[in-house]
Structure formats: C-alpha cells, structure tokens
Amino acid sequence: MKTVDWTDNLSLNDILKPGEQDEVILLKDGHAVALLTPFDDDDLQWFERERDPAFLASIAEARRQVEQGRTTGHADLKRQLGLD
User: 57 is in which domain, residue-wise?
Assistant: First the structure.
C-alpha cells in the first residue's frame, strides 16, 4: 500500500500512477481522505451487479425464502434429480 499527499498542484496522474498495482491512500493534511484500489473488468461487473435493483430484490427474496424454510437442501435436491 502506498500513500500520496494531497497538494493543490497534484495531478490525476500523480494520484493514479502509484496505484497501478497497489492500493493508494490519499492524504490531506496528514489524514486519509480516499482509498484507491486497482479495479479490473471483473470488479466492474460485480460493482454494477451489486447496485442493480433487480439483483438486490432477488437477494432479498432469497433471504425471505430461507427465513420461511422454503428452500431445498442439497441432499433433497440430489434425491429429486435422481443423483443418489
């Protein structure tokens, strides 16, 4: 992990270059104000998915089903599929 001190003449390149492979903590007056972390296409897909209202609703529904006992266990599923 690297740190970069914020200054008025700090460029975007000054901030991003040290973080190409590592996380970077941006400091202003000695206090952390941001954490920059490398982000690839897989991360972007998860980032988008985790903010998708339909996905969040499906997770909430799945949790309700678990709470209500409306799920099928692994052993029961194997039996239902004839995989015993």
Answer: 41-71
